[in-house]
Amino acid sequence: MPVGYKEKFLIKKLARLEEEFCNANSIFQEGSRDVEKLFKNHYKIEEEQPQENPKEKLKQNLQAEKPSPQEELKQPEKITSPEVKKLYRQVALKTHPDKLLGMPEGEEKEKLKTIFQKATAFMENDDYASLAIIAIKLDIEVKQFSENDLKKVKEKINIIEEKIQQIEKTVIWKWIFEENKEMKDKLLKALFKFMYEKKNKSNPRP
For residues 69-96, b (16+ Cβ closer than 10 Å) or e, as one string? Predict the structure, then answer.
């Protein structure tokens, strides 16, 4: 049975929220960088550029990422359901890099490559709901969701809504969208005070 109206509504809602969160987070990060620059300029703080050995850093990263033999033995083998495998294959037919060889380089090609990477991660985690969202965007027919799949979608919606609310509650977010100059300056001063106190706590004077 194809996906029903309820599933379509929840999937579209989740897709809209994911896009909203990405936009909000991007604006928040950009605002944070601007505040950081203003703070350093205000207190005449020079940019710190620690000297690192690239080879040593790469070695440390590889060692951190590589699990020990004991951890490898403890890791349970992931089981992927037939429904997820089938849907993943359909998504891969439209997004696998090998299928994009004839496509000219550009934003659309990179977008499909990213979709394939996400689909692979969802398949490995046996996440049918998230994989179905990608499939629907690619005009691939999806079966009706199980109660468990619907529960996962609702949980994702709640998590993303909470993340958006957390961003919108921050002083930086309020500073970004404050139109009154006097109030904007007050918010910036409050941010500077918090950042200055935090810096002194992390770097106490001798």
Answer: eeeeeeeeeeeeeebbeebbebbbebbb
